[in-house]
Design a protein that fits this description.
By secondary structure, the protein is α/β, with parallel strands linked by helices. It is built from 32 helices and 14 strands. It is globular.
Length: 705
Amino acid sequence: MIVDARQRADAIDVSRSCIVQAPAGSGKTELLIQRILALLAKVERPQQILAITFTNKAAAEMRQRLLGALKGAAAPCPTTPHEKLTWDLATRALNRHGDHLLRNPSQLAIQTIDSFNATLVRKMPWLSRFGSLPEMGDDADALYQQAAETLLAKLGDDDHGGRQIRLLLRHLDNNVAGVQKMLVAMLQRRDQWLRHLLSCAENSHQSLQLGLEELCVEQLTHLKASFPTELADELLFCLNYSLENRDDSSADIYFSILPDCTFADLSNWMLIADLLLTSADKLRKTVTKNNGFPAGKENKTAKEQMLTLLNELDPDSMFIQKLAAIRPLPVSGYSDQQWQLLQALIELLPILVGELWLVFRHRSQADFAEVAMKASQALGEVDNPSELLLQIDHDLHHILVDEFQDTSRLQYQLLNTLIAGWSAGDGRTLFLVGDPMQSIYRFREAEVGLFLKSYSGEFGESGLELQPLQLSCNFRSQQGIVDWVNLAFADIFPAETDVALGAVPLSRAVSIEPLLSAAACQVHPFIGQNDRAEAQRVVDLVKQARAEDPDQVVAILVRGRNHLREILPLLRQNNIDYQAKDIDPLTVRPSALDVVHLTRALLHRGDHLSWLAVLRAPWCGLTLDDLVLLTADTSAGLIPTRLGDERIKSQLSDDAQQRLERVWPILQVGLKRVGRLPLRQLVEGCWLALGGPACCDDEGRADIL
């Protein structure tokens, strides 16, 4: 039974905008395809629809499945309900547009968010100031490093940040590396702070103070809401008793009700935190005179009441967690010294961004954040749109965003600008789908809180109404696995939603696949760390599964690459073939690298590094000292020339001369045969003659042969 059938039907109602929370295995991609097909049956031109996702793989899969659905409309109508629905929608889409969609699939705008940003930048090069689009890269740390180094080099130039740099260095005990690391980290996140810095430059102090106070007030509001109100009277009594018996100035404070949630009340909540929590932010188990409960019979009743209160409080409750979370907050705001340091950063960071821009231009490279910011710049502002935004507003009627939980604030703002001209009832829709429990792009500044905020029913500054929909059916896993996940993760996920912190409660799934007879999930515990034994257990389980069903696919999931160090060799020893994309490449295997260097050395006498690697490889094994002697005279020509020079070889150690007496003639023969033999035959013959097979184990020989 499809318990979320109503939600799925609402999701393909193209008259409304929706945000769909779709957990793993819930058929999210199929739902997106059905939504696009339903839109295609309505729009005049396919280009009026834009589907955005976050990876090239996801975009390619979406395009492939959409085209597959359109092609499948030529086949007889399927019998299963969801396939029949897709077939019906595809048929309507083709009836609307004919076979133009299949003959010209480029009309279907399915792009990654980075690709869409690049498209905007290409259309407005004079506004983005890029000209031709620069080379893109996922890792721009080298560019950030260069910009930070260039800025730090201006230490003595007060007109270009020198004074601010000196202040930062003084604050960090002249730790230049620390300042550089901090500047690089700021550049990595400039899409989060740059717009605020430039818009609030004149009243930056006030903006920062207000931001700090708003953060504290939000934390206090959540804290007070989580307090068990039935314990209020007991807490107030114990708090007042404790303050009355303390020696500090807090003895004059008295509470008749719980503190409010204003910034001024933060210090009062700190008193409650000091009463209930230890220095390690754990719930106290007892109290002493230091906590305001002196020894003596006259204090016994109050102390017993305090211990009763501590016993009634749950140490793992949300209240205790949030009480501990407020302790690092600044009670009095920023100090004068902190204001001075913040002002230096406010003045310095725009200069740093300027240096990064110069690095981008010089190297013709940029990062995704820069392209995204230039794309936003190309669109203009909501109240001052560019010609490009006006054109897009006219042409684009429907936007679909996949994996919306991985949206950054900058990308959110881009979507907000795109829909700024939309109004209720104009027929244009926004469709957001994702799963906040699967947010994985934090390193790309993704904020799952944006999904949670939008799920409340509104999007952007215009307040576009969204219908929240929750999918719960799981079509991927059998009931035993789904039930185990629901049970095991119930205590791992937070109990309540927190937009600011990105806290997401568990969304329980309902399995469509029936329960199988065998145990769905098994735990194989080990006492202490024993990587070899764990790896052997994994391999044994793989062999058992393959014996039961040789055609089934078995997956091994690990948290990190280092967990595979023992598993992969055991798989190879047991002749178990596997696929490990970007995990176990031949390019990092020593035996394979030796053959690569041998190939390069034979093909290019001037490949200095490859020749040194060949002479260092196990079949020759020259020491580093001998290699230094061999290359010391820079005027002696290429390494093959030096190997043929008896004068140079005589300077090497006796051991090196004996090794070269065997190896060099083999390499000479190989060099003479270049171009006369097929490359494989040339390299393989040379490798065998050098004794390559004897220099590697069975695993290494298998990699090569």
